[in-house]
Design a protein that fits this description.
There is one protein chain. By secondary structure, this protein is mostly beta strands. The protein is 0% helix and 56% strand. The strands form two sheets. Strands 2, 4, 5, 6, 9, 10 and 11 form a seven-stranded mixed sheet that branches. A four-stranded antiparallel sheet has the order 1-3-8-7, with no helix packed on it. The termini are far apart. The relative contact order is 0.32.
Length: 121
């Protein structure tokens, strides 16, 4: 059973910083990519940032220069460092993992429960 455990959300003032963490646990054969999506009220879920097993990253244009994604392969953990936060960054942030749970299993998407990030004065 694969589980994704997120932490680090909260309330922060505009211009502030937060760091999100997501640890993947359970039976894992290979993790191909991990990342973060977000969903604001009334909007569709959107990709914020992703990182592949080799280290290549992809960031949404709206967060480039402010957010950084990193990964600790030994801990199966992905981090999202969020700086210069804006009110429009307010959303529920979901951790995502693209992985294969066992040698004969199929590659699947897994999601965390979500963590609220609120940017407000």
């Amino acid at each position: 059973q694969v589980q994704l455990a997120e932490s680090g959300g909260g309330l922060v003032q505009p211009g502030g910083s937060l760091r999100l963490s997501c640890a993947v646990s359970g039976t894992i054969f290979t993790i191909y990519a991990m990342g973060w999506y977000r969903q604001a009220p009334g909007k569709q879920r959107e990709l914020v940032a992703s990182i592949r097993s080799g280290g290549s990253t992809n960031l949404a244009d709206s967060v480039k220069g402010r957010f950084t994604i990193s990964r600790d392969n030994a801990k199966n953990t992905v981090y999202l460092q969020m700086n210069s936060l804006k009110p429009e960054d307010t959303a529920v942030y979901y951790c995502h993992a693209d992985l294969q749970a066992n040698r004969i299993g199929i590659r699947q998407d897994y999601w965390g429960q979500g963590t609220q990030v609120t940017v407000s004065s």
